[in-house]
Design a protein that fits this description.
Elements lengths: L1 H7 L3 H25 L5 H18 L4 H9 L7 H18 L2 H15 L4 H17 L3 H18 L2 H17 L6 H15 L2 H17 L3 H17 L7 H13 L5
Helix pairs in contact: 1-3, 2-3, 2-4, 3-4, 3-5, 5-6, 5-7, 6-7, 7-8, 7-9, 8-9, 9-10, 10-11, 11-12, 12-13
């Protein structure tokens, strides 16, 4: 359980890789966990369940098994931090599946448990709640959650979290047509990802800049950004993600009638 947790915990993209390469192995681990939960400490079980949320999110399933594991924790005594962590992971999973009302509830519960003593975790819970509100069309509350998360990330020095929330704010302002506010946010997000050495997320941020320039009717700058994103992904071996650059380039070529 500890080995599985260490390999999966906290990295959605690592979970994606494991799902692609070792699905049957981790499916067996997951199946065995339900029957052996009593043999694990509450802390180990909580962290493994949290990791499995990432795994099921990567697998694209409904997360039913992970929820069964969480229910098995209800009779064990968990710290507020671990409970908040589980709720936040559950909220992220529910968001990815489109269950935004349930995700909102779980993320707000996570905030309540983490607000006083665990600001870094609370920041992620605010980000997750913001995503829920955004997809439900409640943009003022989404912005409020995002700005709270932004402050917490800035105070904690979490570059990855701060870059992520800047991207979310950029998406919100794009949605309401305030495009001039978006570019500084995305450029700062790119800086933070570079400083953190996260080429994968940097590629997404660069691609988002390309989409922004498309929306602002600047296809030359857009194409440069899409090609830059592709280069980062290819350089680091994330070949199955290069569609985030090639798809918009294909759309641009089609608009110009360049079917070659």
């Amino acid at each position: 359980a500890e080995k599985t947790s260490a390999r999966l915990f906290g990295d959605h993209f690592e979970a994606m890789r494991i799902f692609r390469e070792e699905y049957s192995n981790f499916q067996s681990v997951a199946d065995a966990l339900e029957s052996s939960a009593d043999a694990l400490s509450p802390e180990t079980l909580a962290r493994l369940v949290s990791a499995l949320y990432e795994y099921w999110q990567a697998a694209g399933t409904d997360g039913e098994a992970a929820e069964r594991f969480e229910r098995s924790l209800e009779k064990t005594g968990l710290s507020d931090k671990l409970r908040a962590e589980l709720l936040m992971k559950r909220a992220r999973n529910l968001n990815s599946l489109g269950f935004y009302a349930a995700a909102e509830k779980a993320s707000l519960e996570s905030q309540a448990l983490s607000a006083e003593n665990y600001p870094a975790l609370c920041a992620w819970a605010h980000l997750t709640a913001g995503v829920s509100f955004f997809h439900r069309g409640d943009l003022p509350r989404a912005r409020g959650q995002y700005e709270t998360a932004r402050g917490l990330f800035e105070n904690s020095g979490d570059k990855i979290g701060l870059a992520g929330i800047l991207g979310n704010l950029g998406g919100l302002y794009t949605d309401i047509g305030e495009l001039d506010r978006v570019e500084p946010l995305l450029l700062r997000a790119c800086e933070l990802y570079r400083e953190a050495g996260d080429s994968r997320r940097l590629a997404y941020a660069i691609s988002n800049l390309g989409n922004l320039y498309l929306a602002k009717k600047d296809p030359v700058k857009a194409e440069l950004k899409f090609r830059e994103a592709i280069s980062h992904l290819e350089k680091n071996g994330w070949l199955w993600l290069v569609d985030l650059g090639y798809n918009p380039l294909g759309g641009m070529a089609e608009e110009k009638g360049d079917f070659q």
